[in-house]
Hints:
Blueprint: E1 7-14, H1 17-32, E2 39-46, E3 49-56, H2 59-83
Antiparallel strand pairs: 1-3, 2-3
Helix pairs in contact: 1-2
Amino acid sequence: MSLVRVCRADVRLIIPDDAVDAILDALTPETETPSSERSSAELRRTPGGLSITAVSSDTSALRACLNSYLRWVQGVIDVVEGLR
């Protein structure tokens, strides 16, 4: 019998609606074709922001996945704010 370990994190971010639209447009393709078989992520609009749910096979992959998505989110927010 093998033990399957699954790690999961839910992150909720408070973000303006115009930035949420841009984030979903930019990052949805990443969620559809993950760069690693060890982790995946889902993005959802929430009231007042965005929710990121990451699932992985181990904590290192979970950390890497969250770091990537949080950096990408910050990058999109920086661009949207620069356009205002």
